[in-house]
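Moderator note: this is an archived Q&A kept for reference. The question asked for a predicted structure of one protein chain; the sequence and the answer are reproduced below.
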Amino acid sequence: MPSRVVVVGAGAFGGWTALALLRRGGAQITLVDGWGAGHSRSSSGDETRIIRAVYNGDPLYTDMVLRARHGWRSAEERWGRRVFHRTGALYIFEGDDAFATRSLPVARERGIAVRRLTPEESSRRFPRIRFDDVHAAYWEPDAGYLLARESCELVRDEFIRAGGTWRLALAQPGAIESGRMDCVQLSDGTRVEADAFVFACGPWLGALFPDAIGDGIAPTRQDVMYFGTPPGDERYDDRHFPVWLNFGDRMFYGIPGNERRGFKVADDSAGELVDPNTLDRVVSAEAVEHARALLARRFPGLVEAPVIETRVCQYEFSPSGDFLLDRHPGARNVWLIGGGSGHGFKMGPAIGEDVAGLVLDGTSTSTQFSYARFQAARLARRQTASARTHS
């Protein structure tokens, strides 16, 4: 078992991995991040994230959500801070609802409550939402949202209290020789040696490992808006309103007002490719227009609501949308952890446990999260793009 491990990246994947490694005991763990835990350039930034167990019928992800949910609850007890808010999740389908119907058998097997609602039932239960163009809706009462940026900070703080070493610096991977890496080089000029290294660098993973990852991790621009509700109006806050996902020509999602923030609306469609270092994080007028069109159609009481805050975040898409949780193909003591693909944040506690097992126990990753699958999907994506170019 390695006695020294360096984890690069203090977002949802890296922070929970460092904490899980430390809680296992027996190794000195160093956690490094260039801008801090949950910073604004990271894929784990912004205020909130949805946590849900309806997962397009994929039992692997559903089981991971259930493990993660337990991890969030346990962490709340340790922190004395509530970060998981159970509001329920409403899935709204303007057309095909296969995403939900494929999930129902898996949900039943695992005791997850999911109920199909007709548009009429939906209107009675959620009178502030318009359902006249909706095919079907589904209700998952145990879903909700997580406080994102704050959770990353709480994980980092617990890591430090438990004896971990925290470094605020940019880390560059050292040379790989004879199938191993010996160190990372930090921007303050220091060199940190270790027996094992975990790189959980989100949208920066491809730039750090251009040969192994390269364009296989694609950072995309994602505009997020917060709309202001009338003063004293609690109808759209988290005590009275669910998180929601609206499946139509585009997939939008939202989170009710919380933590003195407004009503969150975001387009889940992949935006343009970006550089997370240089991205100008000002939302586009087009994004606001699309969000307002959805409000007019689905949430008529907010049609005149002002935009009170905005964020430009990013996803980091893997070729298949699956996570990558595996060894570097050329370095047996280096693990590459990424490909959150817009749905990874909620999985943090489960991913941390799984990666700790990979590093400390030498367990094998799931085939679905393997480097071999990642590379095959990466090549397939390139071939598809080439065929389109030449057609």
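Archived answer notes: The mean pLDDT is 96.
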